[in-house]
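The protein record quoted in full:

***
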Amino acid sequence: MRVLWFALIPLFVVLGRAQQPTPSNADQNGARQRVPLTEVAFDSDVAGQVVLAARLRTAALGGTPDAPATNARVVIENRGPSFYGFASGWVTFYDAQGTRCGEAMWTINAFAPGEAVDRDLPGLRLTCTPATWRLAAASLLTRTGDQARPAERRPIAATVPLQINVNGTVLPIQLGNPIELTVGAERVRIVLSPAP
C-alpha cells in the first residue's frame, strides 16, 4: 500500500500543475477572466500570447449609484514583442455578485515592448465597491517600420577586391566565379559566395 502512495504522488503533482491558471486568463471562448483587485490582469493576442499586463495603482475603489467614483489609476505593461503606435482598451470592474458596475477606456501612444505606462481612467463611473476587474485591449496598432524583421544579408561590395593566398601564390577571386586548383592528384573547384 505504501508503494502505491509513492507512485501516485507524482501523478497528483502533475495534475495539480496542469490545473493552474495561465497568465492569459482567458476562458475557452476567449473572454478575459476577472481577477481580484490586488492581482495582475492580462490580455492576450489571437494566438494566445500575453501582450498586456495591468495592475491597479488606486488601492481604495468604491462608489454608489448616487455618488459614483469617477477616476482611478492603472499601470499597463507591453509584454508583447511589438511596438504599438497606438493602443487602447477597457478596464472593467465587477461587484461581489459578478455584476459589472464600472468601466473606463484607456489609450496609449507609442508603446514599446517591455514598457510600463501609468494611466488614469478619467471616464470611469464606478457605482459599487468592486471585488474583481479585467483588462481588454480594443486596438493594438503596430507601426510597420518597427516590426521585427528577419536578419537581412548584406552583400559584399563589388568594389572590394578579393584574393586568396594558397601556399604563397595569390589568386584574384570574384564572388560566384570558380577557382580550380590541383590538390595532390585531385582537381578541386572552389566557389566563393555570401553565407546564407
Observations:
- Residues 162-191 form one domain.
- Helices lie at 2-18.
- Residues 24 and 42 are 5 Å apart (CA to CA).
- The longest helix spans residues 2-18.
